[in-house]
Please model this.
Amino acid sequence: MILILVMAEEKWEEADFLRKEIESRGHKARILDMGLLGDAQGACDITREEIIQASGQNPEEITLIADRGKRMPVMVDGARQKVLDLYSHGELSGIISVGGTTGTRMGTSIMKSLPFGIPKFAVSSTAALPGLASRYIGTADITLMHSVVEIAGLNDLMRNVLARAAAAICGMVEGSARVPVSFDSEGKRSLIAMTHFGPCEECAVNVRKQLEQKGHQVIGFSAAGIGDRAMEEIIGAQNIFSAVIDLAPGGVGEELLGFARAAGPSRLEGAGKIGIPQVIAPCGVNFGSPLKRKYKPEYESRKQYAYDAVRTFVRLSDEELIMVAATMAKKLNKAKGPVKVVIPTGGWSSVDKKGADFYDGEADAVFVTELKKQLSQDIEVREINADLESPEFANAVVEALIDII
Model:
């Protein structure tokens, strides 16, 4: 069954059209009313009263609240409970929302409660507004469609938008059924999470190929602030990985310094909390990606590397490296499972290999010294006489993992 999320006091007509389009393609569809104020314009399969009850609140008391902002968290919480109940009983195959800013914010917040692999689709008239898309999607596998025209009644353009949305969610459901995500016990043992980053791509590819030859599946996450944040959330929420290889934990420092790849306060904590093995490498730890609006004049005097049209890497100062090392050590020391740290002595990425202008062995040594000083004695630091992108270093990463799984 495909569930349609809508504020039925505003956009029930569009939701009803969407339901008919979905059903015409052979799928069952139901409408969930997540409305705030005003009566639903038509019949809904899951009513507002049911949602309020699912939230644990008294419907009579909630109906007396005239403030949309105060009602919203109640409706989102109740809808999440309903959606998770449907999912746990095997009744939910996909979910889609239709709305403007409020409807999309509520709908995508509800979708985020579902695990990876369940088709999630949002039709929004505000998908292209600056800053909103990242809020709507967050770290979830949500597909966002910009309606372009306002979702305000049925007309030829809106019917076309909704017909395409119906085709999309039906196709996603069918595709998911053909290639399902399986998290059984056998699969779980073979799933290894690994961070990727452009400057360590050769290493990532080499490590992945070696592990695949040993029967493991390697699931990559882009360490650009969102992908590595998603990895941490999935590790904590779904517990599907048997180990983590964190080649690019630079998001820790970026978070501390307010840079572009900030990966949240929980970066480098997920694997440790649930006790799965982790191997840590230092790609991206010794430089950062300052936001233009926060660019300090002092950065001009530091070593820089123009990686592409939108990113310029700036070397961290000794003080910043010490702070990052201490923070990483504090997080790793709390790990309930085994940890290995593998550090190359010939450069920590493709852009700062020994001999390159961006290389700074003395600065790297400041980080390593502080990290060793702060780490627990039971966490081994292996230093490899090679650069991070070399086959020798990739071999060392794989060996470190094999030693602790």
Notes: The chain has two domains: 2-178, 185-404. The first strand starts at residue 2 and ends at 6. Residues 342 and 382 are 5 Å apart (CA to CA). The mean pLDDT is 93.
